[in-house]
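Feature request, filed as a ticket because there's no other form

It would be nice if the structure record came with a short human-readable summary line next to the tokens. Right now we just get the raw output. Example of a typical job, pasted below so the devs can see what we mean:
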Amino acid sequence: MTQRLSRHRSRTLRTARKNRVAARSLAVLFVSFVIIAASAAHAYEPIYDPTYYGPAPQEDPGLLREGGMGAASAAASLVYGPLKLGYAVGGLVLGGSTLLWTWGDQETAMTLVHMSLGGDYVITPAHLGGADDIRFTGELPARQ
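Raw output as currently delivered:
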């Protein structure tokens, strides 16, 4: 019985050693492949000759990029939107109190209201892409 156990144990140890060697070999092969592929991709730089090929093609952003930008802008708007709404409500309250404290000076009060209510309330993909600036506050109203 002990011989049978020792044979089974030695067979299990041999199998485990073979599996470890196979796993290491596979890992070395995989790392070698990644290094070779990365160096080959880095070394390849296509030569673009506009006289032969014509004007350079416009970059197509693709569905995955557009979807990612849309999801990122929605997630950013979930954080930015409530902050901007709080700022706008605070500006309304401050504008109303300014109207009272300045004895009806509408120009000063409306400047505060325009500055707080103006601006962007959501983040768009154009904002994230840098094509458009995020405006947290509005513009000053024109003086009359």
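Something like this underneath would help us a lot:
The first helix runs from residue 2 to 43.
The chain has a mean pLDDT of 76.
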